[in-house]
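Below is a typical protein record.
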Amino acid sequence: MPTQIVHGLSAIPSGPHVVTIGNFDGVHRGHQYLLKQVVDRAIDGARSLALTFDPLPAEVLRPERAPKRLTTTEDRLALMAETGLDVIAVVPFTREFAALEAREFVERLVDAAQPVHFVVGADFRFGHDRTGSADLLRELGPEYGFTVTVVERIGGEEISSTRIRQLLAEGDVRVAADLLGRWHTLSGRVETGAGRGRNLGFPTANLAIPPALAIPADGIYAAHAALERDGEWLPALVYIGTRPTFSEAGRVVEVFLLDFTGDLYGSEVTVRFLERIRGDMTFESPEALTEQMHADEAAARRIFAEFENMSNPSGAHAPRTSGREAERGHD
C-alpha cells in the first residue's frame, strides 16, 4: 500500500506504531538505513511511522542561521516514502511546539501514535533545549509501554546532512552523491534571461531555484536535465555563478541542453549534478568565453561516457557508492 502522509499528531491513524523522529533533510543513505529499520521492525500489527517537521526547526528557532535545505518538503516526503513506510506525519514546527518539555512531548506522542517501539540514532535529541535523548526514551519506555533501539554508526565515513551541504559548497557533487545515495538535484521554472548564451552559441535556460535550497559552488557542471513535459533525462551543462565576464549582479543557475532544440520558457526543469568541470572564471572577451565553453562541452561528453547504459538514466546514473556503511543519524 502507498505511504499515508498526514499532517499533525492528531491525524496519525489509530493503532500501534514503530516510530522514528527526525528532520531527514536530504534523506541520505544514513536516513534511508534508519527508516528501513523502522519498516523492518513494524510487525505483529504495528505500522511504521516517521515523524518529521515543516518548517525545519532551525528555520523557526534561528532563521538567520538556518542551513540551506537539500530537498524541498515535497521531495523529502517522496524520498522517505520510497523506503516503504506506512505513515509519515508532518508536524508543524512552531516556537510553542519547541517549548514542550521532553516528557510532555513523549506523552503527546504516546496518545497520538501508541508507540510500541522507537528506532533512533545515538545523537537523537528532542524537547525543550534538546533535553530529551535516547536514554530518556529508554527510561520512559517501561512506563508507557514501548521499547527502544538505538542505531549506532557501524563503521565507515560519517554521513550527515551538514557534511553533504559542505561538499556541495565545495563543488564536490560526486562525493555528495555517494553520501546521498543519488545525484543532488535542483528544480526550477525557466525564466527569461539576458539572452547572452544564445548569442554565444550556447542557449541557456535560467532556472528560478527556491532560495531555501542548497546550490553547489560556482562553476560549470556536467549534469542531466529533465523537462516536465516528458521526463526524459538529457545531457546538459550547468553554469552557476555571477557571470563576472559581463559584470552582472546576482547569482544564476543556467542550463544548456547539449542535444536539444526547442523553447523552454515557462517549463519546469530538474537538474541532477554529475561532476564539476571547473570553477567560475572571468574572460577577456566573449570569444574567449565561447572557446572555453566548447572545451567544457567536450569535457562533459567525456564524463557522460563514463556512465554505462546511458539510454536508461532512471537506473544507470545512480552514484557508484563505495559500499561503506552509513552513519545512522537524524541530521
